[in-house]
Automatic annotation (TrEMBL):
InterPro entries: Beta-lactam/transpept-like, Glyco_trans_51, Glycosyltr_51/Transpeptidase, Lysozyme-like_dom_sf, PBP_C, PBP_transglycosylase, PCN-bd_Tpept. Residues 286-402 form the Penicillin-binding protein transpeptidase domain. It comes from the Bacteria. This is peptidoglycan glycosyltransferase. One of its GO terms (biological process) is proteolysis. It is an enzyme of class 2 (transferase).
Length: 627
C-alpha cells in the first residue's frame, strides 16, 4: 500500500474511532439542560423566573442574547484564537507549558472556551488528568455543536456569584436589566465574575470586582485603554436584584399559558402592595383582570407572596368563599331570560317569608314598591330571593356550572333560595368567569338579551369617581368575612376580593368600602371601553304580582323566655306594615317607628307582656320572665 493510501487509511481509522468514542461516551449535558423555568408575558418579555432544581438561577443564554461587545470581551479575555482552533489550542497549551517550565508554577492555563465549557458541564478537581479529559471533551463539544454551541454552553453555565449561573441571570441579578442592554463596563463585570465568582462578587468585594472588570476592559482593548476610559466605567453594583417573579401564583403553574400583560401586571401588583399597607393585620386581597373576548387572564394577584402573616403562599384567587350579593346579577339575568320580569317591572320590597326563610336587607329596612332595575342596583335581598323562587335554584346552579363555577354547598344540602344572597362557595376565578358571561352576552349559558340587559343595568357612576361606563356590583358575606367588587366594561372583567385567608370575620367590612375603591383603580389602569347604560323610561309600566301578606311577629324575645335582670334587651320584630309600636305591659316604648327593633331595660324582676302593633292594627305578643 502506498504512502498516501496508508495515510488515508490511518485517518479513516482515527475518524472512525473518534466517531465510535463520541457515540459511546456522549457529553453529559444534564447541568446545561436543568435550567430555570422562564415564563414569558403575552408580548414575549420575561414575566417570571423559577429556579432550577437546587435553587440555582441558571438561565439559558445564547450568543444572540448578548451585546456584540460582550462576546468580543469574552474571546479577548479567555480564548483569543477561538475562531481558529478545533476546541483545543495547541499554541496556548505550548505557551502554558513553557511558562510552567520556566516559572515552576502555572502562569496561564491554556484553557479554551470549549475546555471551560467541558469543565462547567462536568466539574472535576484541577489535576493534569482532569485537564486531559477536558481537552478531549472540548474537541467533542466543538465537533458536535460547533462554536455557537460551545458559546451557548459557556454563557448558560458561567458562574456569576452565589446561586446565579448564566450571563442572562447575571445581568438581571446585578443590574436588573436584560443582558442585551448592558454597556461595555457592565458586560466586562459579568465576564470577570465567571473567572472567580466568589472572590469578585461586587456586593461583598467591590474593590476586587472593580479590578477584575477593568482587567477585562484592558484585554478587550489589547492593552491600549486609557485610565480615563477605565474611569468612565463607574462603580460596581452594591447589591443583587431579585429576579422577576410577577404573578407568582399564576406563573408557578407550569401549564399556565403566557397571557399576562407585563405592564398591567406590574401596575396591579403595585396597586395591591399599597392597598395591603392600609389593611388590618392578616387581611389580604386578590385581584383578577380577564379579557372578555378570549377569556384569557391579563393580570392576577393572588396575595402578597412574601407575607407569611397574610398567608401569601396561598393563591387567594382559588379560595372558596361566599360571594354575598355579588351573585345577584346572575339571578336577575335568569329572571329576564325566563320572562318573569323586565327592568321596569314593579316589585314590592316588603317583609316576606319564604317558608321558614325570612331574609332582610343589609340595613334591615325595606323600600316598598320599586322597579326591578332599582332593586338590582340597590342590591335588595327580598326581590332577589323572590326572583330566584320564580326561576328555581336549580336553574341558577345549572347556569353557574355552565359558566365554569362549581357551586359548593354544605354537605347534604340541596340548592335553595339562600343561593340568591351568596349561600354558596365560589372562587374569585369562578366569579370572574360568571361575569364574563354577562360581557359575552351569555356565552351559551344565559340568553344573550338577558345577559346584555343585566350588564347594562349595572352601569352606574363609581362612588368617589373613576372611569365611566363600568358595570359593577359589590358583595359582602355574612359577618363581613368577604368583601367583593365585580365589574366589567366592553373589553375586560375585573374581580376584587378582600378578606382574611382563614375566613374569620372583619367587623364593619363591606364590599363597597374595601373592594370597590380598588376596582375603580384597576379600571383606571385599563384602556377605556365604556358600556352604554340601560335606557330606563321615566316611569314603570308593568306591575308584578303583589307578594303574599307577611304578618307582624316578634323575633325576640321568644315565647316563655327568661332573661337576667341586669342589662339592656333589644326587642325585635319582623313582618307587618310599618310604622310599628312596641308595648311593655300595654305602655308604648319610644322609638323611631320606621324601625323594627327597640331597646328596653327591665325595671326589675317579674313577668312582662311584650306586644308589637303594626300600621294595620295587627299584633303579636309574648310573655317573658326577668329573674
Amino acid at each position: 500500500m502506498r504512502g498516501p493510501a496508508r495515510l488515508l487509511a490511518v485517518l479513516a481509522l482515527l475518524a472512525g474511532g473518534a466517531w465510535a468514542l463520541d457515540r459511546a461516551l456522549p457529553p453529559n449535558l444534564l447541568r446545561y439542560e436543568l435550567r430555570a423555568r422562564e415564563v414569558p408575558a403575552r408580548d414575549g418579555r420575561l414575566l417570571a423566573v423559577w429556579p432550577a432544581p437546587g435553587g440555582v438561577w441558571r438561565m439559558h443564554t445564547r450568543a444572540a442574547d448578548a451585546p456584540p461587545h460582550l462576546i468580543e470581551m469574552l474571546i479577548a479575555a479567555e480564548d483569543g484564537r477561538f475562531h481558529h482552533h478545533p476546541g483545543v489550542d495547541p499554541l496556548a497549551i505550548t505557551r502554558a507549558a513553557a511558562q510552567w517550565a520556566r516559572a515552576g508554577r502555572v502562569v496561564s492555563g491554556g484553557s479554551t472556551l470549549a475546555m471551560q465549557a467541558a469543565r462547567l458541564l462536568e466539574p472535576r478537581p484541577r489535576t493534569l488528568r482532569s485537564k486531559m479529559i477536558e481537552a478531549a471533551r472540548a474537541l467533542q463539544l466543538q465537533w458536535r455543536y460547533g462554536r455557537a454551541g460551545v458559546l451557548d454552553i459557556w454563557l448558560t453555565l458561567a458562574p456569576q456569584g452565589g446561586n446565579i449561573e448564566g450571563l442572562r441571570a447575571g445581568a438581571l441579578a446585578w443590574f436588573g436589566r436584560p443582558l442585551s442592554t448592558l454597556d461595555p463596563a457592565e458586560s466586562a463585570l459579568l465576564v470577570a465574575l465567571a473567572r472567580r465568582p466568589e472572590a469578585t462578587r461586587p456586593d461583598r468585594f467591590p474593590d476586587a470586582a472593580r479590578a477584575a472588570r477593568d482587567a477585562v476592559l484592558l484585554a478587550r482593548a489589547r492593552g491600549v485603554a486609557t485610565q480615563a476610559e477605565i474611569a468612565l466605567a463607574g462603580e460596581v453594583p452594591s447589591q443583587r436584584h431579585a429576579l422577576p417573579r410577577h404573578g407568582p401564583h399564576f406563573t408557578r403553574d407550569e401549564a399556565a399559558p403566557p397571557t399576562l400583560d407585563l405592564d398591567l401586571q406590574r401596575s396591579i401588583e403595585a396597586l395591591a402592595a399599597r392597598a395591603l399597607h392600609g389593611l388590618p393585620p392578616r387581611v389580604s386581597l386578590a385581584i383578577m383582570v380577564t379579557d372578555i373576548a378570549t377569556g384569557e387572564t391579563r393580570a392576577a394577584f393572588g396575595g402578597d407572596w412574601m407575607a407569611e402573616g397574610r398567608a401569601g403562599a396561598l393563591d387567594l384567587t382559588r379560595a372558596v368563599r361566599s360571594p354575598g350579593s355579588a351573585l345577584k346579577p346572575l339571578v336577575y339575568a335568569l329572571a329576564f331570560e325566563a320572562g318573569v320580569v323586565r327592568p321596569d317591572t314593579l316589585l314590592e320590597d316588603l317583609p316576606r317569608r319564604f317558608g321558614t326563610y325570612a331574609p332582610e336587607n343589609f340595613d334591615r329596612e325595606f323600600q316598598g314598591r320599586l322597579r326591578v332595575a332599582d332593586a338590582l342596583r340597590q342590591s335588595l335581598n327580598q326581590p332577589a330571593v323572590a326572583l330566584l323562587q320564580e326561576v328555581g335554584p336549580m336553574r341558577l346552579v345549572t347556569a353557574m356550572k355552565a359558566g365554569g363555577a362549581l357551586p359548593r354547598l354544605p354537605p347534604g344540602a340541596e340548592p335553595a333560595l339562600p343561593l340568591a344572597l351568596g349561600g354558596v362557595g365560589v372562587t374569585l376565578r369562578e366569579m370572574v368567569g360568571l361575569y364574563t358571561l354577562l360581557g359575552r352576552e351569555g356565552g351559551g349559558a344565559i340568553e344573550a338579551r338577558a345577559a346584555r340587559t343585566t350588564a347594562r343595568l349595572l352601569v352606574q357612576p363609581l362612588p368617589g369617581g373613576g372611569p365611566s361606563g363600568i358595570a359593577w356590583k359589590t358583595g359582602t358575606s355574612w359577618g363581613g368575612r368577604d368583601a367583593w367588587a365585580m365589574g366589567l366594561d366592553a373589553r375586560h372583567v375585573v374581580g376584587v376580593w378582600v378578606g382574611r385567608p382563614d375566613g374569620t370575620p372583619m367587623p364593619g367590612a363591606t364590599g363597597a368600602r374595601l373592594a370597590l375603591p380598588l376596582l375603580a383603580q384597576v379600571f383606571a389602569r385599563l384602556p377605556p371601553a365604556p358600556l352604554e347604560p340601560w335606557p330606563l323610561r321615566p316611569g314603570p309600566t308593568v306591575a308584578a304580582a303583589a307578594p303574599r301578606a307577611d304578618p307582624v311577629r316578634l323575633l325576640f324575645p321568644p315565647p316563655g323566655a327568661t332573661l337576667p335582670e341586669a342589662g339592656r334587651v333589644v326587642l325585635r320584630a319582623a313582618g307587618g306594615q310599618r310604622p310599628l309600636t312596641f308595648l311593655v305591659d300595654g305602655a308604648p316604648l319610644a322609638l323611631d317607628r320606621a324601625r323594627r327593633e327597640v331597646g328596653w331595660v327591665p325595671p326589675g324582676p317579674g313577668f312582662y307582656r311584650i306586644t308589637v302593633l303594626d300600621a294595620e292594627g295587627t299584633s303579636a305578643g309574648v310573655e317573658l320572665r326577668v329573674r
